[in-house]
Amino acid sequence: MNRFNLSAWALAHRSVVYYLMLAVLVLGIGAYLQLGRNEDPTFTIKTMVVQARWPGATLDDTLHQVTERLERKLQETPHLDYLKSYTKAGESTVFVYLKGSTAPKTVADTWYQVRKKIEDIRLTLPQGVIGPVADDEFGDTYGIIYGFTADGYTNRELRDYVENVRSRLLQVPDVAKVNLIGAQPERIYIEFSPQKLAGYGLTAEALTTALQAQNVVVPSGEIVTDQEGIKLQVSGALKSEKDILAVNFAVGDRIIRLADIAQVRREDANPPDPIFRINGKPGLGLGISMRDGGDVLALGRNVEETIKELRKDLP
Description:
Strand content: 25-35%
Oligomer: single chain
Radius of gyration: 30 Å
Largest sheet: 4 strands, antiparallel
Number of domains: 3
Strand order of the largest sheet: 2-3-1-4
CATH architecture of the largest domain: 2-Layer Sandwich
Distance between the termini: 85 Å
Shape: elongated
Structural class: alpha+beta
CATH superfamily of the largest domain: Multidrug efflux transporter AcrB pore domain
Number of strands: 14
């Protein structure tokens, strides 16, 4: 029986061999051009931060009523290595660390389990607690950052323009996330005159309680017919400075408007969040993260083309 001789077959069919070599070469070049290109390697961080706020609470109350409850619940986390917590008056922070041997493909499901546990305990926390919220997005890196400044525009106006740009950039191929950097939260400040309060026999605590009672949304009923149901809603929610100034207080047999005894102004939070600066001028930034397996070079070209189009609509 003659054994198959590959070398002899290749010499006898040189045209087929050349064709196969050329096909493999072309396919290899095509595969190389389709390879993902990322500025940084992908890696899995096995840490999550769980935070909750309880405005006005003391350190002991925050520790015993919030932090310790969160820790007891989070101890049920699969693949848990250890917990580390920090507590301040009105603020609780718990770090969840997974074991180093935890497989990267199981980390996402583990964080999903943590979020479910947070939802389970949320309703058992004291009234007034904000959160808890979980954050595990530490591995995202910004391949591109754009900065925005605008002379003659308020922070709110600039933010509106930047938010529009962000919405458009999220539609660019290979873009995973676009985060707003340097945005300052707004606060509404109510300044009372101590002399006027004393003259009306009021206290700041009483006014605060009245404002909190006014700023609520409750179900008001429903009209049900044979064909449809109509929800009724009577809201006392405060939506603007004008609404706040129009709040009334009953003092004895008198009705007093807040506008008579206080001033209301909207400003950026003080102290501010970290400020984003461009050549020394405060502004806003957009940090763009690429999706897994994307091409950072193609991403840069696509984003640059989109920004050129958007510049036409910017002031």
